[in-house]
Design goal:
This protein is of the alpha/beta class and 277 residues long. It has 2 domains: 122 residues, Oxidized Rhodanese, domain 1 (3-Layer(aba) Sandwich); 115 residues, Rhodanese-like domain (Oxidized Rhodanese, domain 1). The protein has 9 helices and 10 strands. β2, α2 and β3 form a beta-alpha-beta unit.
Length: 277
């Protein structure tokens, strides 16, 4: 059974929880950039029953460095962590946060990167959940989650720089940050403001409707349609929120874009790489 591979709504998840389905696992991915204690704190205060906590900084990224602020984790280390949380290769996995999917999308993408197809994001996040929350952490048995053939793609800075230098236009770059950061009007996080030359600004917030849920597939198809003339690569500040645009394009029914994991926080580390504006 394929199961849910992009989104799951709160009603569908509630049915699963009430049926106590053993092959459905839930991951709480709440986070705040620059505040490592936020996610564990809100998880302890209350989470969806049976959910396990997955850390952006400790689980879904390697330590900051030459690869940017949130380099990808070591595949084997993340798979081992997921197995310790009781996850299995056959499970339906549901991820959620409280930020419109900005952080949970990274978990969704990482699961696909490890070869796990049955992974879905809770549409609307924890605020869409009408059931009771719990402060109790479930005791789980060791799972068998493993690394399999990746279902998604990445591109590194060198390949991206070569494409820009050759002006081949074989790549369409989509930046998930706000317009103000893209335009270098403000930069609250990284040491240098701006964007990668030739990129288009598609803030992740515009993937969502007024209720904080993903827009319809038709609306998302219209949003991304004009960027399909070349191979799409998504990036952001550190490779986290870029996955929101990747998920949105999957919902729209388009081919899955590649992720530039280092994103702007890695790109700016080499002064030889071109910058805009």
């Amino acid at each position: 059974m394929t199961g849910f591979t992009t989104l799951i709504n709160a009603s569908e998840l509630d049915t699963i929880v009430k049926n106590s389905s053993a092959d459905v696992k839930i991951l709480d991915c709440r986070a705040r950039l620059g505040d490592r204690d936020f996610g564990p704190g809100v998880y302890r205060d209350g989470h969806i029953p049976a959910a396990q906590y997955l850390s952006l900084d400790d689980d879904l990224a390697s330590p900051p460095g030459r690869g940017g602020r949130h380099p990808l984790p070591v595949k084997s280390a993340l798979a081992a962590r997921l197995a310790r949380l009781g996850l299995n290769d056959s499970d339906q996995i549901v991820v959620y946060d409280d930020a419109g999917g900005a952080f949970a999308a990274r978990a969704w993408w990482c699961l696909r990167w490890l070869g796990h197809q049955r992974a879905a994001l809770l549409d609307g996040g924890i605020s869409a959940w009408s059931g009771a929350l719990t402060a109790q952490q479930s005791v789980v048995e060791q799972g068998d989650f493993s690394v399999r053939a990746s279902l998604t793609r990445t591109i590194d800075a060198a390949a991206l720089a070569r494409d820009i230098a050759l002006k081949t236009t074989t790549i369409t770059l989509l930046d998930a940050r706000t317009q103000a950061r893209f335009d270098a009007v403000e930069e609250p996080i990284d040491t240098v403001a701006g964007h990668i030359p030739g990129a288009h600004c598609l803030p992740l917030q515009d993937n969502l409707d007024a209720h904080g849920k993903f827009c319809s597939a038709a609306a998302l198809r219209a949003r991304f349609a004009k960027y399909l003339h070349a191979s799409v690569v998504c990036y952001c500040g550190s490779g986290v929120t870029a996955t929101h645009n990747i998920l949105a394009m999957k919902i729209a029914g388009y081919p899955e874009p590649a992720l530039y994991p280092g994103s702007w926080s890695e790109w700016l580390l080499d002064p030889a790489r071109p910058r805009a504006p």
